[in-house]
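Below is one protein, fold included:
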Amino acid sequence: MNPITMKLQADKLIRMALEEDITSEDVSTNAVMPAYQKGRVQLIAKQEGVICGLDVFLRTFEILDPATTAEFYARDGEEIQKGQLLAELTGDIRVLLSGERVALNFLQRMSGVATYTRATAKLLEGTKTRLLDTRKTTPNMRVFEKYAVRVGGGNNHRYNLSDGVLLKDNHIGAAGGVAAAVKAAKAYAPFVRKIEIEVETLAQLQEALDAGADIVMLDNMPPADMEKAVAMCRGRAETECSGNVTKENIARLVSLGVDYISSGALTHSAGILDLSMKNLKAI
């Protein structure tokens, strides 16, 4: 992860997670380790997948004690195997114990997203279609989950509401129709911003194209209509397909020739990758 991003966004979120887990003290650790003792612990994979979030993992311990160091034997984006030694951390044993759960929570979650994304992205190999994530992220985990999508081989859609124009069904309702929504967005948004609008029917699509939309999101359309929609958009607007897209059903969309397929499942349905800190010892 970019060091500037780490400082600006990740650090405060990691601190919040640590403060949630340690409100006053780590009673268990302080009971068995009342004073400083240098130690080392191993990070081991208990499941195969794509590792992601190693910088965040280390940073969690560094926030507790900047003297904590790590030797990594894998890099973000690598496909790892069950039983593989991924890293060794060295530092105050009290810090290694107190930071363990939070550090693993970040690393397991990010690796799970990267693993799920990699498996989904492979289904689009050889096509022009790019896989996108959505804003359906875990609250306060967006910076980590969207990074994990990229590591897994996917692409980021807009980061947040300030990042781009996407007019969905309720925006259209508020504006009074597709054409009115596009017209209002063109008048309000900076000229460098593309205008994307969600459509559910071919009639709405035609209205969006006539209004000058740059990108159309084909939402939950029947496959036959979607095929017609892609043909209608050719040379006029880019196409994005969305609507309950998962690793299990994305194959049905591959042959349509859309520019983008967005999937909230990359972040809201990915499991964790099972990882563990083991063999802690004093040195």
